[in-house]
Amino acid sequence: MRTYTAMEAPLASWPWDNLGNYKYLLCAPLLAKAVGGSAWERASPDHWCFLLLLLFGARAVTYQGWCSFSNMLFLNRRRLIVRDGVDFEQIDREWHWDNFLILQLWLAAMAVYAFPSLRHLPLWDARGVAVALLLHVGVAEPLFYLLHRALHRGRLFSGHHSLHHSSRILQPTTAGFATPLEILAISALMALPVAAACAAGLGSACLLVGYMLAFDSLRAMAHCNVEVFPGWLFEALPPARYLIGTPTFHTIHHTTKDSNFSLFMPLFDLLGGTLNDKSWELHKKNSAGTDEIPGFVFLVHIVDVMASMHSNLRSRSHASLPYRATAVTLLAWPLAFVIMLMMWAWSKTFAFTFYRLRGRLFQTWVVPRHGFQYFLPFAKDGINRQIEMAILRANKMGVKVVSLAALNKNEALNGGGTLFVKKHPGLRVRLVHGNTLTAAVILREIPEGTAEVFLTGATSKLGRAIALYLCRKRVRVMMLTASEERFRKVQEEAPPEAQEYLVRVTKYESAQHCKTWIAGKWLSPREQRWAPAGTHFHQFVVPHIMRFRRDCTYGKLAAMSLPADVRGLGVCEYTLGRGVVHACHAGGVVHFLEGYEHHEVGAIDVDRIDVVWEAALRHGLRPA
C-alpha cells in the first residue's frame, strides 16, 4: 500500500504557501470593496463586507488573546499541563496557523454573495440561538466525533491529520494548524447549525457572529497548555465533566491518540467508549497546580517601551526573531506605554520564559522597570527593592543561582550585587553578575597580535578587568577616564612589570590612530568621528552604540550560544539570534552547571577569566 505524505495527499497543503506573509493580500479585494463602498456606514450596500473584515480581526484577536494567556507564566506556571516550553521548531512549523481564517473569510464572503438575504439579518432572535444550540449538540458534535476518529486512520492520518499532531506542546494557535481538507470539514460543521437556523427564518447577526467567536474561543481554550477549569467544579457538578472539554482532556488526546476525540463535549467519548480513564484524575492534578523549582533564574529588565513588545505575550512569532522595531510595534506603541504604566503600578517581578538544560529548569524573570528609570536618581531605592524581593523569593523557593542582567547589576545602583550579599549574608541562592564570562568573551574577540586598544568605561567592573588582563598580555591600553585617582587604583592592581602598559587619556582624540575601540560607555556620533577608518568597536554598554560610521565595523554585545541540548527555548534575547544569550546570562548558566558555591558580585577576579571561559566551552557553550 502506498503511504501518502502531507505534501502528496490531496488538499494537504495551502495553495498560497509560496506567498509567505504576502498571503494577507488575499484579503485585499474585500478590503478594497469595503473602502470603495464606504462600508462602515450602515446604509452602504457593502456594509456586510465591512462586518466580515471586523469578524476576521475579532477571530484573530480571540486566538491571540488565548495565546497570550497561555504564555503568562506569572499567572499560570503552576497549572501548566506539559511543563516544557514551545521551541523555535514548533513556532516555525505553526507560523502560518491563521491560514484557516483567510479561507473561512472567503467562504463566508461567497455565502453572502450566494444568499443575499444574509446581508439583512435581524440583530437578534432568541429562537434561532436555541435551534443552533440544539443542532450543535445533536448534530455537529457527534459528526465531529466521527470525523475525528476517521482522521486517525490510515491515509487520512498520515496524509493530513499527522500535521496537527506534530505539535508537541499545545498552544491556542495549534488549533488552526491543520490541512485545507480538515479546515473545510470543520467549516462545514461550524456552518451547519447557523445555516439551518437561517434557513428556518430564525437567523440573526448576533447568532452568526456569536457562534463563530464562541466556537473559536472554545477551540483555543482546549488547545491551551494551561488548565483553566477548577477541580472543585467537576466534584460539585459531576455531569459537567461530560459537557465541556478541558485543556487537560484535549492534551491527553495529543499524547494518547486513540482517546478523547470529542470537539467540546466528552459525552460523545463516553458514549463511543473512547474516554481516557485518567482524564479527570489528571485534570484534578493540573487544576490544583504544582510548583517546579527552577535551578537557575536570569533576572532581566525591560530595555525600553518598544522592546517591551518583544515578548511571546504579544506575539510568539515576533519574539522568536531578534528584536527590531516594525510598523506593527510602532502602531502598538501607545498600548505598550499604557501597559508600562500598569506594570509600574503593579511592581511585581514576574516569570517571562523558560527552557531546560540537562534536565533542569532555567527561567527568566523580569523586573518591571524600563531602562531609562535606572538613570533617575530618585528611582534607585525602588529598583533595588524590586531586585531584592526577586532574590529573596528565589532564595525561599530553593533556586540555586540568580544571574543579574545589564542594569540590574549597575555599579552605581548596587555595586554589582554586593549590596544584597552584604545585606543578606545567609543567602543560600548564589548571586552572579556574570561579568567574568562577559570579560572573557570580549577579550577573545580581540585579534591576536593587537598591540594597542582604546577603552571607555575604563574604571567600571568590566573595564577594569579588561585593562588588567590585557596589560598582563603586554597590550597597551589607553584608559579614558577623568579621574586620576581611579586610574591609579586600577594601575596599582597590575603587576609592576605591566603597569607601564596602562595609559590614562582624557580625550577621544587621543585614540585617533587606534583601530581597536572597546566601548564601555555610550559613544555619540561626534565621539565616534575620532576613530580612524577601519576601526572595530567592541562594546559592553547598554543600550548598544549607534552604527554611525560606514567605514568602521561594530561588534554586538558579548554573547554565547547555549549548548545544543537546550530544550523549550522559543524566545530570542533582545537583538540576539536564536539560541544565543548575553554573556552575563551564560555566565550564570556556567556558575550553575559547575556548581560553584561562591557569589560572583562586585569586582571581577581577573585570575578567573580563563577558568570560567574554559568551563563554558566544556559545557557546550560557544561564542556567538
Description:
The protein is α/β, with parallel strands linked by helices and 624 residues long. The chain has 3 domains: 212 residues, no CATH class; 170 residues, no CATH class; 121 residues, NAD(P)-binding Rossmann-like Domain (Rossmann fold), CATH 3.40.50. The chain contains 25 helices and 14 strands. The strands form 3 sheets. The protein has a 6-stranded parallel β-sheet, covered by helices on one side. Strand 6, helix 21 and strand 7 form a beta-alpha-beta unit. Helix 20 crosses helix 21. The two termini are 48 Å apart. The relative contact order is 0.09. The N terminus is likely disordered.
List the helices and strands and how they pair.
Blueprint: H1 28-36, H2 47-70, H3 73-76, H4 88-93, H5 99-114, H6 126-151, H7 154-165, H8 180-199, H9 205-222, H10 231-236, H11 247-255, H12 267-272, H13 279-288, E1 296-302, H14 316-319, H15 327-331, H16 333-346, E2 350-357, E3 360-370, H17 380-397, E4 401-404, H18 411-414, H19 418-423, E5 430-432, H20 435-445, E6 452-455, H21 461-472, E7 476-480, H22 484-493, E8 502-505, E9 516-519, H23 525-528, E10 536-539, E11 553-554, E12 559-561, E13 580-582, H24 583-594, H25 609-618, E14 622-623
Parallel strand pairs: 1-3, 1-4, 4-5, 6-7, 6-9, 7-8, 9-10, 10-11
Antiparallel strand pairs: 2-3, 12-13, 12-14
Helix pairs in contact: 1-2, 2-5, 2-9, 6-8, 11-13, 20-21, 20-24, 20-25
Task: Sum up the structure in keywords.
624 residues; alpha/beta; Rossmann fold; five-stranded mixed β-sheet; 10% strand
